């Protein structure tokens, strides 16, 4: 599995970025992750579209979209379903219609495989979350079992800690003192 300190793998994938006819799809590449503007990226994976736990997570990330934006962080959701399945799901699920971030389609499963998050039996992605710095380096990884949804507030807490570039004690939250050595 790709881990902390490693470069996020190269990719070029189609993503659903809109429900507007003719503007539904865009190509996202790994070049999107590296920048001179000090913009971070959080990419989170779910196992399957049209399931039960997954939309609760996607909706919660969407509710917190402005929190990520306020931290100069791009948000990308991803699964191994196709862009057409993503689009159909967004059109048919009330909580997904107004997403503010792209839904990446890893239909070939190559990126999930490169990341080491492909479940071996069903060949679907685990619930994995990656925080990537502006140089394209993975700074945090968290992987949940297929049946357990993640905690978006914890993703934000870790992002805050990473962005301080300081030592953050257990249970540290933004605004609290960091450690001095």
Automatic annotation (TrEMBL):
Reaction equation(s) it catalyzes: a hydroperoxide + NADH + H(+) = an alcohol + NAD(+) + H2O
Domain of life assignment: Bacteria
Gene3D superfamilies: Glutaredoxin
A matching Pfam family: AhpC-TSA
The enzyme's E.C. designation: 1.11.1.26
Keywords, alphabetical: Antioxidant, Oxidoreductase, Peroxidase, Redox-active center
Statement: the UniProt record of this protein carries the keyword Oxidoreductase: yes
UniProt domain Thioredoxin: residue ranges: 2-164
Keyword Disulfide bond attached: no
Subunit structure: Homodimer; disulfide-linked, upon oxidation. 5 homodimers assemble to form a ring-like decamer.
Protein name per UniProt: Alkyl hydroperoxide reductase C
């Amino acid at each position: 599995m790709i881990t902390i300190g490693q470069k996020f793998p190269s990719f070029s994938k189609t993503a659903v970025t809109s429900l507007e006819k003719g503007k539904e799809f865009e190509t996202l590449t790994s070049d999107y992750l590296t920048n001179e503007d000090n913009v971070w990226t959080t990419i989170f994976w779910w196992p399957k579209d049209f399931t039960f736990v997954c939309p609760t997570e996607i909706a919660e990330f969407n509710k917190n979209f402005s929190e990520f934006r306020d931290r100069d962080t791009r948000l990308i959701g991803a699964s191994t379903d196709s862009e057409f399945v993503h689009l159909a799901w967004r059109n048919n699920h009330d909580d997904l219609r107004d997403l503010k971030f792209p839904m990446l389609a890893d239909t070939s499963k190559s990126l999930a495989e490169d990341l080491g998050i492909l479940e071996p039996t069903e060949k679907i992605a685990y619930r994995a979350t990656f925080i990537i710095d502006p140089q394209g380096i993975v700074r945090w990884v968290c992987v949940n079992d297929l049946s357990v949804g993640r905690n978006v507030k914890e993703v934000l807490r870790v992002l805050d800690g990473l962005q301080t570039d300081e030592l953050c004690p257990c249970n540290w939250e933004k605004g609290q003192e960091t450690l001095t050595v």
